[in-house]
């Protein structure tokens, strides 16, 4: 995966998000190679890898110092209490949404 191509797909210019984007690339590469039992991302799965990296960057709100992802469940002002709800749509879907595309490249290991 190429950092510059991911930046173009996300519409990012400049180098201030390069470390975060490289983390996304490394994370997706690790997920795909682990799932497929391969040393590298299979050539036919490269577009899927870019889509996964874009989803990871957008849904995890990486690079932001803010904790709020719009997932606040409740706020109490007296003695200050904030509770967050889990984004189950995303956390359960990153690999799950791409499993069908990646399964064709998966190797059987014993």
TrEMBL record:
<protein>
    <recommendedName>
        <fullName>Phage gp6-like head-tail connector protein</fullName>
    </recommendedName>
</protein>
<dbReference type="Pfam" id="PF05135">
    <property type="entry name" value="Phage_connect_1"/>
</dbReference>
<dbReference type="InterPro" id="IPR053746">
    <property type="entry name" value="Viral_HT_Connector_Assembly"/>
</dbReference>
<dbReference type="InterPro" id="IPR021146">
    <property type="entry name" value="Phage_gp6-like_head-tail"/>
</dbReference>
